[in-house]
Amino acid sequence: MHPEKQGRDRQSRGGLHSLERRRDIVTRLRLDGRVEVTELVERFATSAETIRKDLIALERRGYLLRVHGGAIPVQAMTFEPAIAARTENAEAKMRIAVKALETLPADGAILLDGGSTTLMMAEHLPVDLHLKVFTNSLPVAQALLAKPLVECFTLGGRVRHNTSAEVGPAALRTLGEIHVDAAYVGTNAVSFSRGLCTPDPDEAAVKAAMIRCATTTVLLVDHSKFGLDALCAYAGLDEIDVLITDSDLAAGHREDLESQSFEVELA
Predict the structure, then answer these.
(1) Residue 98: what pLDDT?
(2) Residue 245, SS3 per DSSP
(3) Is the dihedral of CA 171, 175, 180, 185 positive or negative?
(4) Residue whose C-alpha is closest to residue 165's, from 197, 137, 201, 135
(5) Domains and CATH numbers, the chain
(6) 237 near 195, Cβ under 8 Å?
(7) CA torsion 155→157→158→164, rounded to 10°?
């Protein structure tokens, strides 16, 4: 495009009403599957702060999910990334993991589910803490080897390639034989109609069993998981005792949580 015409085009887009601009953003999401803040700033010849407000408004209305540097469309999850690739919202997940440490029992037994946030929690467990920790996650078990006073038990079973988590009859059998003070679980999706959801049936079965064998269930979930759905629902929201999420949670989702019976902690 000729530079002069390109400049006029950017100037025209910069004068768009916010409603028109947001419609354009939604269209771009549907076409490309992701939008970047830097590209939208260039496209509309406006500020990053204006684009951030657009994305927040669209997220509150359920059109998208904000991720680092941009946004993705809201859609049912039918796949899951490998745990090593789950780098989005790492800062928020770290805050959640550190906040979760405040809820640990002084002694006794806990369960740590597989996932990037529970892995961060395992890595930051105090070294002077006496605990029995059960986990189905090989990365979590590896991290706990650095904690000399922690007794670590894995559940056994088939190890999934994507998540390095143990699933199947052996893991379920172990969970049927134990009772713990607290289970710290993650999730791929929080649906306000279906509850906690994950794409894999075997992982869903293990997560459900973890919740059943715990006195207290603590859900660790960052803001990007709310309003999503996935193939397998494994627990209702009424089965949660404490939910720990980050302060970037959309206002609309905060309102949805106010009607729930569990305690909500913001990190």
Answers:
(1) 94
(2) strand
(3) positive
(4) 137
(5) 3-73 (1.10.10.10), 83-266 (3.40.50.1360)
(6) yes
(7) 10
pTM (two decimals):
0.70
pLDDT band at 74 (very low <50, low <70, confident <90, very high): low
Q: Which two tokens stand for residue 180?
A: 């713990």
Output the pLDDT for position 67.
Answer: 77
DSSP assignment letter at 38: H
* Side chain identity, residue 158: R
CA torsion, points 263, 220, 89, 161, in degrees to nearest 10? -160
DSSP designation for 160 = P
Residue 103 CA from chain centroid, whole number = 19
Average pLDDT over residues 77-91: 56
Cα-based distances in Å from 168 to 109, 156, 203, 219, 234: 22, 9, 8, 22, 15
Q: Which amino acid is at 243?
A: L
Q: What are phi and psi of 141, to 5 degrees?
A: -60, -40
- Which backbone phi and psi does 56 adopt, to 5 degrees? -65, -45
The Cα–Cα gap between 249 and 11 comes to 33
165 secondary structure, DSSP code: B
pLDDT of residue 48: 93
Q: How far apart are the first and last CA of the chain?
A: 47
Other Cβ atoms within 10 Å of 144 Cβ, number: 21
In this structure, the number of other CB atoms found within 10 A of the CB of residue 106 comes to 8
Q: What CA–CA distance (Å, rounded) separates 111 from 51?
A: 41
Residue 58 DSSP SS3 = helix
Q: Are 73 and 63 in contact (CB under 8 A)?
A: yes
> Is pLDDT of 5 > 70?
no
Q: State the DSSP code for 85.
A: G
Tokens of 201: 């049936």
Q: Which residues are CB-contacts of 68 (< 8 A; sequence separation ≥ 6)?
A: 88, 89
